[in-house]
Amino acid sequence: MENINDFNELEEMRQQIKALKEKVDRKGFLNENLVKKSIQSKMRSIHSTIYTLIALCALVTPIWILIKMQHNLSWAHLICTLLMMYVSLFFDWYVSRMDVGRMGDDLKETARQLLKMKERRAMHEKIGMFVVIPIWGLWTGYEFYTNIKDPFLAKAVIIGAGVGAIIGIIVGISIYFRMQRKNTEMLEEIKSITEEE
Q: Over the stretch 40-58, which tens digit does the pLDDT of each residue have?
């Protein structure tokens, strides 16, 4: 009789362990799905920021053409300014071009791509901040100074352009840090799931 009771208790424990394992597996699956949705949402947000920047560049292009005409700036400066904007924008798009719909299918591969994205974006930002913007800023100042005949107006335009450039740099840096933060959050979410496995 004791053997039958022991057998029943053992069978009941097996059933409980099986139910617990299924619950853990189900929880892991749900967690993975939540992480996948969160990653896709954050990536859509990065893509939407890039589309906003594309719209802004389209708006700024005719403004730069008007500035060139009004202040008799060189064609070389205008072409380089527009090229700088669009090449930078293309690089932002290229770095963030991951297919949102497939993100999270393979979490380790997604993490690898996100890490690469983060590193490339950091490199792009350093080149822009420490090479392109200083050279372009000096050239723009020189263009205004030499092409505007009234020295008072030239100084006023240079100061206004400088203030505008500083505001643009602050906005650009904040966008950069927001994108990098989203990348970090996505990587941490993947890490939390892969460490559980």
A: 889 999 999 999 999 999 9
User: In whole angstroms, how large is the CA radius of gyration of the chain?
Assistant: 28
| Mean model confidence pLDDT for the chain | 85
pLDDT band at residue 24 using 50, 70 and 90 as cut-offs:
very low
For residue 88, what are the CA distances in angstroms to 39, 123, 132?
25, 12, 10
| pTM for the model | 0.79
Contact 81, 168 (CB under 8 A): no
Q: What are φ and ψ of residue 36, in 5° steps? A: -60, -45
**Minimal CA–CA distance to 149: which of 78, 70, 80, 79?**
70
